[in-house]
Amino acid sequence: METIKVTVDSKKRISLTKLLPGGKISSVRAYKENDRIILEPMVEIPAREVWLYQNKVALEKIKKGLSQRGTIKRGSFSKYAK
After folding, report:
1. CA neighbor of 41 nearest in space, from 75, 62, 18, 57
2. What is the spatial distance between Cα 17 and Cα 12, in angstroms, rounded to a whole number?
3. 67 conformational bin, left if phi > 0, alpha if psi -120 to 50, beta if neither
């Protein structure tokens, strides 16, 4: 686990920018666990794509298909070219 020291400014705020991963973080989920405050970066997905994450069978098929990308030999399609 990487530890980064953050300091409190004059208004008792801290900047978490150094701690956030790259990408499009849209919000942070915060919860308490014993004496710790846990912040979990979150991203949003479009409503039209939610079904995929709710359908485990479809999601696994998509993951399998993406892992096979570039590994299947389909032969030449030159006879279809005009």
Report:
1. 18
2. 16
3. alpha
Residues 6+ apart with CB under 8 A from 37: 30, 31
Q: Is the pTM of this model over 0.85?
A: no
Domain boundaries, the chain: 45-70
SS3 (DSSP) at 66 = helix
Q: Are 39 and 27 in contact (CB under 8 A)?
A: no
| pLDDT per position as a tens digit, 3-55 | 778 889 999 998 887 777 777 888 889 999 999 888 888 888 889 999 999 99
